[in-house]
Amino acid sequence: MDVELIWNLALGGGLLLLLAECRSEARSVFAGVPSLGCQSSPKHLLQLGGRVLLVLMFMTLLHLDLSLLTVLQNLVGTALMVLVAVGFKTKLAALTLVFWLFCINVTFNAFWNVPVHRPVHDFLKYDFFQTTSVIGGLLLVVALGPGGVSMDEKKKEW
Asked: What does residue 145 show for φ and ψ, rounded to 5 degrees?
């Protein structure tokens, strides 16, 4: 799958998370009366879709190199991706991904170290801001939580 397509899907995931937060939930007519809460409400499904699409971006960071550092980076990244996707310890996993992705972004996409006249400068700049926008989507997950369709929400019922 093309890397640009995955990154654009990840951006769409961030927008879905923002849209889910902006949607208002239907309120009960009776104030103070608890409701059953529909698990498959559009807001919860948008949050699930946003989480899954944001996680797709991390597939582009996986490398097939067999060095110890690369294998460790792939294992940690994959574990965090799965946690965010299924909604288990979502806020902690998303915050860890934010820090991890920020470090990778500053290290590998340092466009400010490349002269402006070189074509690679534009590519690095594009990748830097694309990755920064995905970090913003992950920060939305940290701030808003995983939503109703997640293991974190199911744990509350148990």
From this structure: 90, 180
